[in-house]
Amino acid sequence: MKALKLLPLLGLLFLLASCSTVRVAADYDQSVNFDQYKTYAFYKPGIDKAEVSDLDKKRILRAIETEMNAKGFTKSKNPAVLVSIFTKAKERVDVYQNNFGFAGGWGWGGGWGWGAPGFWGGPWGGWGAGFNNNVVSRSTEGTLYIDLIDTNKNQLIWQGQGTAPLVSGDVARREARIQEIVKEIMMVYPPNVASN
């Protein structure tokens, strides 16, 4: 019986754990030698078009700068790559079903007993229990794209994408969430390819 009481709690913990994950994908030009890129700058026209608040843009750019520096890049006025971003947001609706129940019956059927026919007979009762509990969760899910553009060729060479539920309200949580998303995206750069 204690296990049954823990089911809703375990469901809630699973829901909270699944909200903290960032789904990451990347695409890149296979003909590029990524070892050649060591300097970067932000691509202002692309960043200006990103549909996110100016405060969040600053948070994203700071997080990207931290990750680029950690990968050995330096910011330059004559960069090898330009870094651009764009964002998308959508409402996500998840329905979690928690169906628990049992059904059964008990009683005595008709028939011959010690007394008159049908003495033990007749339905004496029945029982059944159960519940169907659906939990609907609504959240805003955002996708951040980070593009790296070769400045000499003026071509996109790498794009990382991270999708995750967004947090609002608490500024510290928001900052931490943006840092987490950017870090997860940048973990897949450079792509795992042999240098040309």
UniProtKB/TrEMBL annotation:
UniProt key word Oxidoreductase: no
The organism's place on the tree of life at top rank: Bacteria
Pfam families in the record: DUF4136
Annotated ranges, domain DUF4136: 24-191
InterPro entries membership: DUF4136
Entry keywords, A to Z: Signal
Signal sequence annotation: 1-25
The protein's name in its UniProt record: DUF4136 domain-containing protein
